[in-house]
Amino acid sequence: MSFASVKFSDVVKKQYAFKVRSYMGSILTLIFLQIIAIFLASSTANYGSHGSNGITITGHMYSSDMVLIFTFLWAVITAILLTTKAYRYDDHSYIATRNSSNLANVLYLLSASIFAGVTAMLSSFLIKTIGYFVHEVHIYERVSISVIEYMTGLSASVLYVCLFAMVGYVIGLLVQWRRLFIVVIPVLFIGSMFSTNTHHSNPTVLEVITSFIFQESSFLLFSVKIIVTCVVLFLSSMVISKQLEVRL
Question: N or C, which end of the chain has less CB nearby within 10 Å?
Fold first, then answer.
C-alpha cells in the first residue's frame, strides 16, 4: 500500500469520525420523527367490524409503513443538508479533497441508514404493544414469519433508506451546482407522474421506475438493483462535486 493511499484513507476516517460526532443531531431528529410516526400509526390503525348472532368482532391492522415513510423523508432531507455550504466547509477542519469528502459523507449516510432502517423495522413491535394496551386488543399475526423472512425485510428496509439517502445526496449536489434545479427537479418529478411512453393506457415514467425497483419479487435481484443504483448515484455525485467550488 502506497503512502498516498494510506494518507487518503486516514483523511476519510477522520472526516467520517468527525461527521459521526458532529451530526448526532440528525440521529436525534430521526428518533423524534419515528416516535411521532409510531404514535400516529398506533392511533390511526385501519380497522373493520363483523357482526353475527349478536356478536361483533372489530379488527385493527397495525403496520410500520408510516414509520418507514417518515424515515425515507428524513434520509432525503439529511442527505441534502450534507451538501450545503455550511456542512461542506466543516470538512476543511481537515486536509480534505472532494473525493475524501464525498466518501466520508456516503459512509456516514450508509451508517445512519443502517440505524434508521433497523429502528424503523423494529418499530412494528412497539406499535403492536401500544395497540395492545391502548385499544385492549389481542395481537394476531396474519402469517407466521420466520427469522430468515424477518431478516430479509430488515435488509430491504435498510436498502430502501440507503437508496433515498443517495437520491437526496445527488439532489442536494445538483442544487448546490445550479440553483435552477430547485425548480427543474420538482417539475421533472411531477411531470414523470403524468407522462406516458406512447399511449395514455401505458404506465407513467414514475410508475415504471417504482415497479422496476420496488416491485421486485426476488430479494436477490432487488438487492442488486438497489446496490447498483446507489453506486451509480455515488459516481454521479463524484462527477457533480467536481463542478462545485472548493474553499481552500
Answer: C
